[in-house]
Each structure stands twice: as C-alpha cells, then as structure tokens.
C-alpha cells in the first residue's frame, strides 16, 4: 500500500508512527510513473511506501530521516545520497553481483536484490516483484533437473519462447504506425496488478485490504486455474512472468479459505491448484521450482528501471567452488579429510556454547566458546579457510590454522578476565541456551541467575556491564536474532514463569535498550505468553519477524515480534518435549524433541517431515540458505541432512566425546563443535558437493 502525503505534516506523521531508530533502509520509488515516492523499511521487517507532491519534497524527507542508506546488505555506504541514487547507480556500486558470482548468495536472494533496487515492491501491485518461469516440463512423473530440455531458454523473454509468437511481435514492432505511441512488442507488461492477484487469489486474506476491490474484478475476469503451458510453448496472448511466492509460499496453491472459484468444463469445482505429476504436494512444487532456479538461471530481463545495457556476467558453477585450491599443509587430501584441527582447552570443562562470528570486517573475528564452568574464551579466527582460492591468497596464509586459542586461556595468565563468577541458580543446568554472544564478539549475555535476571559481560575484560530484570522467575534460555546496522539485534529471554520477553540490543551503545541513560531499567519490546510450563528453548528470526519457543512439555508456539500469538506447532504423537529449535529465513522451523525425534514445520504450522535418530542430540543448526541441517549429540557424530525431508547428505567419523554445541563460519565452509571433553573441533563443510552427489544418487 502507498500512502499519499501532503507537504506539511510528513515528518510529524512519521515521528508519530515509528521510532526513527527502527528505520533500517530508505529507497526512492516511482509511483504512477513519477519519481515522487519513498519506501521505508523497518526493523520488524515491515515496509511502508509514501508518495509525496514532488521530488524536492522527497529529498527533504530523506534528509530528515536517519542516515541508513539502503541498509547494510548490499555493500553500500549508509549515506542519504545512496537512498537518492538511481537503480543503475545502486546496481553498479553494490557488491551483490560479485557475491552472486562467487555463490555466496542464492539466485533467489540475487533476484530479490535486483527487484528491490529496480523499484519493485510488495507495496504496489503495479510494480510487484517479478520472478521468471524456469521449468518447461509439467507432464512427467519424475523431474530430472540435469536435463536441459526441462528448462526454459532464459535468453529470451516469455513472449518470444514460441517462434511463431516471436515473429508476430517482431513484425508488429517493425510495422508500427501510431505516431502518438512509441513502438513496442507487447501491449501489456509481463507483470501487472491483475496477474499478481490472479496468482494470489487463494490467499486473499493475506493480501492487503486495498487489493479487495481489484481482486473481485480479477475473480470475475480470469480463470483462477494456473496454465503451466505458458512456459512450455510460449503460446500466450499475455506474456506474464511469475511472482516470488512461487518459490517460497506453498499456501498459494491451496484454497484453504474455501472460496468458490467457479467450475471447470467437466463441471467439477475449482479448488486447489492442480499440480504437475512430479509434485506430490505444494511443498514439493515450491522446493523443486526453487532448486530449478538455483540450477539454471543465468540471465535477467528488464525491470521497470533498466539496470543493464550490457550482458550480465555469468555465475561460477557449484562444483568449481567445491574444488578451489587448498593449503598443501592443512588439506593434503581434501576429499577424504574431514577434520581441520582440534583445540584442547586446559580447563577440561565441557564446551557448552560456540559462537563463530568470523566476518573479516570485524575488529576481532573470533570463535567465542563458553564452558560448563562458565569460563569463556575469545579464540581469534584467521580467515585462511574463507580465503582459499580468492585473489591475493598466499601459501603464507595457508600455514596458519584457522583458530588460535585465546592467549589468556592458553597461558592461564588472565583467567580472571575470562571467568563469569556471579552465582547461578543451583537448579539450572548449564546448556548452550544459557548464553548469547553479540555479533561483534564484544559482549556475552548469560542467564540462569538466582535473582531472575540475565546479565551482560564484556568479553575483553570479563566485567559485568548490565543486569536486566523483567521476569518473575529464573531466566532459563536466551536467543539472538541476526544483526542489523551497527550490530543492533533482538534478544529473547525465556523463563520458568512460562513467558518470554523480547528485548532490543543496541550495537551503538552496547546495552539492552535504546537509552544509555536508562540502562538500569530497560523495558522489553514485547511480552510473549501462551506456555503453561517453563520455557526451555527459543529461536528468533528478524527476517521473518517471528519468535518460536518451546516449553518443557507441549507444542511450540509461534509469536510475532510484536507479541501476537500466531499458532501452535503440534508435533505427532509422543513428540511432546521440545529441546532445540532452529528457524530459517525461508520459513522452515526445525524442532528437536527428546528421544531423538525431529520435525520440520512450515511457519504456517504444517508438518512437512519427521524423523527419529539413535542419539541424544545436543546441538542443531541450519545453513544460511536453510537447505541443510547439521546435528550432533552424545554419540559424538556430526550428521548433515537435507532440511526439507531429512534425507542424510553426509556423516562424519565419530569423535571420542559427545558434542555439546556447534556453529558455522560466515562462509559456511567450516563447522566448529564444542565437545564434552573440553575441546573444540573444526570440520570441513562442503554443502555444494554433498547436494551434487545426493542429486546424482537419487
């Protein structure tokens, strides 16, 4: 939805509705073909679009808003001039194409980036994000993603896939006679409000209320059934592409609202979308389409603002990245050697928490570890693994192991700066949930104290910097969201009082809360209720704006970051005691229950997969793209699974001690596990190769 704003009250209106500290990105936008709009993205992942009287007003508003640029995701300065830059300037200046070429981001992420900087937005149905048709085979029982014939020719626009139709449009363009209108191949754009609503007709309740009236028109004018032959033969009068939801929202194919969508020619009622034979359920259809985007797409058509006037550069193949040169000393036989290094701490206390904040731009890239005895270590990370094969990489760098033990711990010279001595409640079991490390490695948050607080400690000095109260009983678990500008993030605390509190961590002030003058009494952003027992595990995803939590017994609950209870995730029979939760930004929630039981839920509550393993799992994590699940437990075995269906991708040789915690380096190529023996182990990770081998096997 776009709000039209008059000249005078715009700043007051913005101030009244949001705190300026919540603004994360500001983009200039076109509205009704005029460059008079702004889209403001907030910390809770919502965005609002405003239309102003003229471009001068737009510039005034930008200079009245926080200096956030277009956010931190695209490698661009956080400057107001960036918010005012043209789409082509944003494209040329960002690092996203290079990241895409190096396969650091997925095709989906890259396409969303192109849509966003080109001016496409969920707030304007006439400029809705557009995604390409990719597959052409909608008839086979099984779909082979290694066959080129199953893919669309992406060098051609949708209207040129059929040679006869392409010739027709070309002839019309070349014989154009209307002097009042510039010549064009197609009378309609490949994305319109009508086609967008056509795709989304079955989930109208989730569409903006402003869409209700045009939706009725669409329902009357268009068939609500989907025509897969569009991409198969290109024989269409309206050359329409797809929307992003085709690649992440299986609910759009299900008529869960029970709408009357008309009848087919055979007099049967139209209800759910008829899926191709190779998709047994909507989740299969979305997952396979997502894989085919990932497998094939190499070029891009024009969006409302043209980004490219030259060919788009190609992407490196996945298998090329699997075989980048390795250090001859550390990786003599990379394909067989799984373990990079083992680091043994002097204390012998089980390593119960691992946080790998290893981005090169950090002042201290490190793997922070915390033991059961609450001795922490800031172990410096050397980016040798991430640099393999990169420009400037040298053998001198390769001689170093990636993790260097904290010298204060190794030499036992300053353990007082690394020991958390404040008393915890005697009934608390120290687990990985008791700790959170900030994204810059500078602070450690700890819970479990007898006074019902959780506390913030400096990782440099070990000193207590803040005590946070809010619960009526002992705080039992903590979780951190991904970070925003300057290290800002959400912190969630769960308690024996059966509630959760959502807090805001200020990376600028290094405190819970926005006001450094009131750090003794910060207020939570939201109170999350619904459990009737002690909360034992929680995960928060700022990208989705959701908190998923589990109590000692009963279903896990899904809340918004504003505190609304959305739904309960009901597991199968005997799946009663959740202990670990991991959520992907794509909307999949992995829950581990006692006795080796796993479930994969969509955030809309649908059970997608389940499995049982012969291990007492202590740590789980999802890869950054959400496709891979890594697990470890008392058996000392790290296993890698395909998250969507729990198919095993890889199993490492067993360790001589149980696994208590784990994390992945930022480049997703090193796994660090905390062991019950007081060690950490660094493993090589190769998700690309395992998926490639898995596809070849099946």
TrEMBL record:
<feature type="domain" description="BEACH-type PH">
    <location>
        <begin position="1"/>
        <end position="66"/>
    </location>
</feature>
<dbReference type="InterPro" id="IPR036322">
    <property type="entry name" value="WD40_repeat_dom_sf"/>
</dbReference>
<dbReference type="InterPro" id="IPR015943">
    <property type="entry name" value="WD40/YVTN_repeat-like_dom_sf"/>
</dbReference>
<dbReference type="GO" id="GO:0016020">
    <property type="term" value="C:membrane"/>
</dbReference>
<dbReference type="Pfam" id="PF02138">
    <property type="entry name" value="Beach"/>
</dbReference>
<dbReference type="GO" id="GO:0008104">
    <property type="term" value="P:intracellular protein localization"/>
</dbReference>
<dbReference type="InterPro" id="IPR000409">
    <property type="entry name" value="BEACH_dom"/>
</dbReference>
<dbReference type="GO" id="GO:0005829">
    <property type="term" value="C:cytosol"/>
</dbReference>
<dbReference type="InterPro" id="IPR050865">
    <property type="entry name" value="BEACH_Domain"/>
</dbReference>
<keyword id="KW-0677">Repeat</keyword>
<dbReference type="Pfam" id="PF20426">
    <property type="entry name" value="NBCH_WD40"/>
</dbReference>
<dbReference type="GO" id="GO:0019901">
    <property type="term" value="F:protein kinase binding"/>
</dbReference>
<dbReference type="InterPro" id="IPR046851">
    <property type="entry name" value="NBCH_WD40"/>
</dbReference>
<keyword id="KW-0853">WD repeat</keyword>
<dbReference type="InterPro" id="IPR001680">
    <property type="entry name" value="WD40_rpt"/>
</dbReference>
<protein>
    <recommendedName>
        <fullName>Neurobeachin</fullName>
    </recommendedName>
</protein>
<feature type="domain" description="BEACH">
    <location>
        <begin position="85"/>
        <end position="374"/>
    </location>
</feature>
<dbReference type="InterPro" id="IPR036372">
    <property type="entry name" value="BEACH_dom_sf"/>
</dbReference>
<dbReference type="InterPro" id="IPR011993">
    <property type="entry name" value="PH-like_dom_sf"/>
</dbReference>
<dbReference type="Pfam" id="PF14844">
    <property type="entry name" value="PH_BEACH"/>
</dbReference>
<dbReference type="InterPro" id="IPR023362">
    <property type="entry name" value="PH-BEACH_dom"/>
</dbReference>
